[in-house]
Design goal:
The structure is a homodimer of 495-residue chains.
Chain A: H1 2-10, H2 13-20, H3 31-41, E1 45-47, E2 54-56, H4 58-77, E3 81-82, E4 88-90, H5 91-94, H6 98-104, E5 109-114, E6 117-125, H7 130-140, E7 149-158, E8 173-183, H8 186-207, E9 213-216, E10 228-235, E11 241-251, H9 253-258, E12 262-263, E13 269-270, E14 273-280, H10 282-291, E15 308-312, H11 319-335, E16 340-342, H12 350-359, E17 364-368, H13 370-374, E18 377-382, E19 387-392, H14 396-420, E20 423-425, H15 429-437, E21 441-446, H16 450-459, E22 464-468, E23 476-478, E24 485-492
Parallel strand pairs in A: 3-7, 15-16, 15-17, 20-21
Antiparallel strand pairs in A: 1-2, 4-6, 5-6, 7-8, 8-14, 9-10, 10-11, 11-14, 12-13, 17-18, 18-19, 21-24, 22-24, 23-24
Chain lengths: 495, 495
Amino acid sequence: MAGKKASDRNGNPEQAGKKTLGLTVTKAGDFSEWYTQVVTKADLADYTPVSGCIVFKPYSYAIWERIQQLLDSRFRKLGIKNAYFPLFIPESLFKREAQHVEGFTPEVAWVTHAGEEKLGERLAIRPTSETIMYDSFSKWIRGWRDLPLLINQWCSVVRWEFKYPKPFIRTREFLWQEGHTVHESKEDADRQVSAMLSVYREVVEEHLAIAVISGKKSEKEKFAGALYTTTLEALMPDGKALQMGTSHNLGQNFARAFGISFLGKNGEKQIPWQTSWGMSTRVIGALIMAHGDDYGLVLPPKIAPIQAVIVPIVFDDTKEKVLAAAAGIRRQLEQEGITVEVDDRDTYTAGWKFNEWELKGVPIRVEIGPRDIEKQQIVLFRRDTRQKETAKMPAAAAAVKGMLAEMQDALYQKSRQHIESSIADAGTIQEIAAAAKGRKLAKGFFCGSVQCEEEIKGKCDGATSRCMTLGSSEKKGKCVVCGKEGVAAYFGKAY
Amino acid sequence: MAGKKASDRNGNPEQAGKKTLGLTVTKAGDFSEWYTQVVTKADLADYTPVSGCIVFKPYSYAIWERIQQLLDSRFRKLGIKNAYFPLFIPESLFKREAQHVEGFTPEVAWVTHAGEEKLGERLAIRPTSETIMYDSFSKWIRGWRDLPLLINQWCSVVRWEFKYPKPFIRTREFLWQEGHTVHESKEDADRQVSAMLSVYREVVEEHLAIAVISGKKSEKEKFAGALYTTTLEALMPDGKALQMGTSHNLGQNFARAFGISFLGKNGEKQIPWQTSWGMSTRVIGALIMAHGDDYGLVLPPKIAPIQAVIVPIVFDDTKEKVLAAAAGIRRQLEQEGITVEVDDRDTYTAGWKFNEWELKGVPIRVEIGPRDIEKQQIVLFRRDTRQKETAKMPAAAAAVKGMLAEMQDALYQKSRQHIESSIADAGTIQEIAAAAKGRKLAKGFFCGSVQCEEEIKGKCDGATSRCMTLGSSEKKGKCVVCGKEGVAAYFGKAY
């Protein structure tokens, strides 16, 4: 019996995995089906009877909670306070800002009845909360002492898209945070927009280990009602860009529509400047796509709900000794702030456990068996490289910590290398089309006009501008479409 | 100029308060208006254009976040995992459990349209998530190894009540957590129900400092679809009971309705037992009512977002010295884990600040002026007793810590004393009516039947059974209505 279990450890886990719980397609072979299988088999999400809505199962919700902590602590340091506004927006309020209503109305879910009664006015389920929040802001803000007003909200929003849904990436209800600030001047608002994009970049690059490009959205792609939108864009393995977070300067558009004004330091009534910015559970989709492999999910250590899993290799005669050693290692790792679990389930074989934790993308697996105890060592398995190393027991925490840091860095470097090697310079529309076809981002000069954008979209198989570079160090040049002056911009297909 | 500011400190803050921002009614004089004024003037909540829905402003949301932390850490220790299920419930799913649908349908908000399209099936906005969750559970649970399933969700729910709304206490949308568990046996479910009520009791009594009575709900008052409901009930100063948290054993009703079954250890197909339990933002209403006074909110130290506020008494010539001392005290308090703010706004007088922080219920105000620095002391003002004490500067943290602990204890003892002195023994319906009229809870024997409950309600000005005692040590006796055997129960009006 002991022999049987031992063979699981030394046997071929992949074979066992394929039979029981592993993926049946490769990432390169069928990317879309691979994604669906990772989402369901790694126990991240489940489909529901509400079309386009998913269950965020505990494992993906724990990832979201990590992202929440990372963002929330940074928001706090910037003086931003959390609040909660109603889910419902009366139709009249929702329709007050012209561009905003045009952008969002086609996707709004409407409440028309309560109990047996028909409501006097339809209520929109928030697709975003500008309109309900700014009605309150107009009552709260009186003078310059009330500014800046810095509010954030964690909630779910509903956008009833009719395109094919995809868990995390495109669902009709999703979770997010939406920040909303009010400032005395355009410059203050500009600074806030840029500060929030920096927070997002730090979390995405340093914690999610996903490299991004950033810039300004074109007129056509900007947030409905905004003066301008800044964005972080990641590149997925299928060559499509994925928006990771956006930060908008709303100008004075909403303030005028909602009657927000303040008495300035000069004693005169003024119209304030506003920003809004958000990051959503979409980034979990990016995390899966960017790092996963043919064995399942691969989670960057800084975001993984479980950073290390200890799998004791248990035989009947040495069970107690091995479990005690596993508990010791667990304590050692926990003392160093590593989140760790011991998988001591006796209803599964070690081989089965190896496969399951690989599927779930836990960064490091620690194996301890009786022979390891004899040698006073543990075996470390690193999820991304799938390489094994041994470490001496007293140095377990240092070894795990070092390996976690190496893995975090390696994932980011790989992502950085992927996006950088996937940017093709384009001097013509044809070159943009060729880049899109080759799963690359095109970089070319662009004037940002709606007409030029439409022309590119029509001729490049749906590729659109992703963002226009911001930096003053970037060169200017002639728009690849109209030849007028433009800035360097990225083009590609997008999720 | 310096003299003017100094007089604010030594003047009469109450007078200043009444003119600028204080309450215009007393708690005893007009309890309902007092409540409304505390909610709005302490900046806890605001009304919105959506009838019956409020904004949870940053200050009340911070209280809710404290409650979330307290509950969440306890849930985690019990192995309960957070997840997120859709906001929407298809009508057919919502109507699957007969008693449940009867209980909730009159208050459901219905989504009928998305964009320009009429939906094929109406969607309920969740009033509670049993029906949408248990449809998923029926797919997740296969065998005894999958049990217990222990899930919690933080979200908002919507119950479109037509009674007069009251911020926190009765709003059409509110925030809560809802826990849902599935077990092999009734005994396991019973234990879970009781464990969750204990968690709620600990948070309510030890942190919110509100004394409660607990027990089982009668047939009429139990959760729609449950086998039985256990509850914690607090007594508000107006003599009305307020439900602080409930924990239900759902029996096998929902499992049967949603087709949840599992292969037991004996190899046979079995129907599991389920529980659900919740605590909502209603408890913030209880917090306000229970502890507030004629000067505003009074927050128990363990739940206060700001435990101590330092108000430097600033004169032009000693400003730097005083602000430096305030910063030193701040560091000292923070090192002891006390959440502290320094109110160094130079646009308000010290007297104005005193009133504002009293209105907001901050447990301790620390005053530091130039004369205090000379004496190497600080002045501590305790919010509930409104008494001042001095402490030597090097002992500031110990003094504040001690005062916080005393205040926490005093608030709880006062609450305990209030509920215990407000229980009147009742041997007849008339005595229940008299107790209710005298703002008391009546305690009498009760059989728990719907008929007897209706009779009491009709004859006691709306008082109903609040809970039936659980303990085996409680005596049994004859029901005050029908004379059949009953257990001791509490009766009273309720929010």
